[in-house]
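Field reference: sequence -> structure
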Amino acid sequence: MKMIVGQCPAGVSFRCLDHFRQEICSGKFEAYNFGAMRNTTEYPDNMNPYQPPEWDLTKLANMPFVLLCGKEDLLASPKDYTWLADQLKAVNACLLFREYDLGHLGFVVPPHEASVT
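Structure field:
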């Protein structure tokens, strides 16, 4: 556990965190917003350069996904992950959806290690 905590937030770029912030602010599941000028080159088929395109989840039809979600996750709320599960089920892409009483790192940190600091 000390090794995991000592490496946080390793592997997370500023752009990834900024994209997460953008989606929270917009309330949409969409591509990264580079700003109007760069959006026109990054997303040439998008009609509105001020907004990035929303992700088209219908393109994932019949692709099997397994969603394992933590009810105690402070980064992904139950409202958000149940919305995603519903969208994937609608296009026959959600093979399995399960909720657990875990937080964000609950799937990678053994329960007996959680109290070690």
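Note: Residues 56-117 form one domain.
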